[in-house]
C-alpha cells in the first residue's frame, strides 16, 4: 500500500474546487434557512413550518454532502464517486480512539451535566422510549451526513497546504459560521443558544476529529460515528461545561499528537482514493 503522504500522488480533485464547494454549500443552506428568516409568513404558508422533520431541514443539513458528491462527480465521474464512497469502509483505527468515541465523548456529557446538577441521561420524551430510539436512528441521517463534505472533501484538500491542526481550526470556524442562520429560527434548538460558545465548540470538535480522520487513513466511517455521538438524544444537556471539557481534551490531544498535528507527515490529502480522475 502506498504512503498516503507521498508527494508524487496525483490528485483527482484540484484544490481550487473548494471555492465551488463552499459557494454551493452556503447557497443551499443559507438560501433555504434565509427564506424563513426574511419572509417567515410566506415561507410557512407556502412550504409549511420549518422543523427538524421538514424536507428543507434535511436538505439544508445535507448541503455539504450534496456539494461533495457533485464535486467528486465533476472531477472523478461515477468511478470516482464509487472510490470516494469506499472511504466509508475504512474501519481500522487505534483502539484508544475507538474508546474515546464510544466512551470518552459520552463521559464529557455526563460529567458536564453533573457539574450543573443535571441528569445523567436526557429525559424520556412523552411519546416513550420508542420515540427516542426513532430520533436516535434519524440523527444518523442528519449531522453525520455532513461529514461527506467536511472530512470527505475539505479536510484532505486543506491538508495539502497546511498542518492538520490549522486545517481543523479553519473547518471548525467555517462549520460554525455555516450554522449561523439557524440561530435566527425560533423553531430550532439553536435559537436558545449563544453563538460564540457554539463556535468555540465547533472549532474544538473539528480539531478533535482531525487525528481520528488521519489515523484511520481518511475514513468517513469514524468521523460520522464521532458526529453521531455528539447529537444523540440520550445524552443530557451539559452546556456550557461539555464545551469546556472537550476543549481541555482537544488541547491534550493536540499536545500528545503534536508531531502529526503540527506537520503534514501522515496527513490524508486524497479526496478520491487512487488516481481515478
Report the mean per-residue pLDDT as an integer: 89
Query: What would you report as the Rg, rounded to the nearest angstrom?
Result: 19 Å
- The helix-and-strand class reads mainly alpha
Number of helices: 12
Provide the domain count: 1
Bin the helical content.
55-70%
The overall strand count is 0
Low-confidence stretches: 1-10
Q: Hey, roughly how much beta strand do the residues contain?
A: under 5%
Element order, helices and strands? HHHHHHHHHHHH
Largest sheet: none
Termini gap:
19 Å
Shape by Cα distribution: globular
What is shown here, in short?
This protein is mainly alpha-helical. It has one domain (17-261).
Can you give keywords for this protein?
mainly alpha, single chain, 277 residues, globular, 0% strand
Describe it.
Helix content is 62%, strand content 0%. The chain is mostly helical and 277 residues long. It has one domain. It starts with 16 loop residues before the first helix and ends in a 16-residue tail after the last helix.
Write the layout of secondary structure elements.
Blueprint: H1 17-38, H2 40-47, H3 55-61, H4 63-85, H5 95-115, H6 129-139, H7 147-158, H8 164-178, H9 195-215, H10 221-231, H11 241-256, H12 258-261
Amino acid at each position: 500500500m502506498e504512503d498516503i503522504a507521498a508527494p508524487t500522488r496525483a490528485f483527482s480533485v484540484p484544490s481550487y474546487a473548494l471555492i465551488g464547494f463552499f459557494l454551493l454549500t452556503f447557497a443551499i443552506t443559507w438560501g433555504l434557512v434565509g427564506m424563513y428568516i426574511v419572509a417567515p409568513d410566506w415561507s410557512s404558508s407556502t412550504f409549511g413550518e420549518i422543523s427538524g422533520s421538514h424536507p428543507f431541514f434535511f436538505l439544508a443539513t445535507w448541503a455539504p454532502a450534496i456539494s461533495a458528491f457533485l464535486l467528486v462527480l465533476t472531477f472523478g465521474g461515477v468511478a470516482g464517486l464509487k472510490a470516494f464512497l469506499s472511504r466509508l469502509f475504512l474501519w481500522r483505527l487505534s483502539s484508544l480512539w475507538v474508546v474515546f468515541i464510544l466512551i470518552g465523548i459520552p463521559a464529557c456529557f455526563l460529567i458536564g451535566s453533573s457539574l450543573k446538577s443535571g441528569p445523567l441521561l436526557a429525559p424520556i420524551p412523552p411519546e416513550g422510549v420508542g420515540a427516542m430510539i426513532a430520533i436516535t436512528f434519524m440523527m444518523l441521517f442528519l449531522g453525520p451526513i455532513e461529514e461527506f463534505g467536511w472530512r470527505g472533501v475539505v479536510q484532505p484538500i486543506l491538508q495539502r497546504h497546511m498542518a492538520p491542526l490549522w486545517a481543523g481550526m479553519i473547518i471548525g470556524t467555517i462549520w460554525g459560521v455555516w450554522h449561523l442562520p439557524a440561530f435566527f429560527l425560533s423553531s430550532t434548538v439553536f435559537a436558545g443558544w449563544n453563538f460564540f460558545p457554539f463556535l468555540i465548540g465547533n472549532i474544538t470538535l473539528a480539531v478533535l476529529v482531525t487525528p481520528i480522520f488521519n489515523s484511520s487513513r481518511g475514513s468517513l466511517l469514524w468521523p460520522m460515528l464521532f458526529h453521531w455521538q455528539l447529537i444523540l438524544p440520550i445524552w443530557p444537556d451539559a452546556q456550557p461545561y461539555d464545551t469546556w471539557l472537550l476543549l481541555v481534551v482537544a488541547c491534550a490531544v493536540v499536545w500528545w499528537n503534536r508531531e502529526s498535528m503540527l506537520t503534514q507527515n501522515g496527513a490524508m490529502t486524497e479526496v478520491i482514493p487512487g488516481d481515478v480522475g
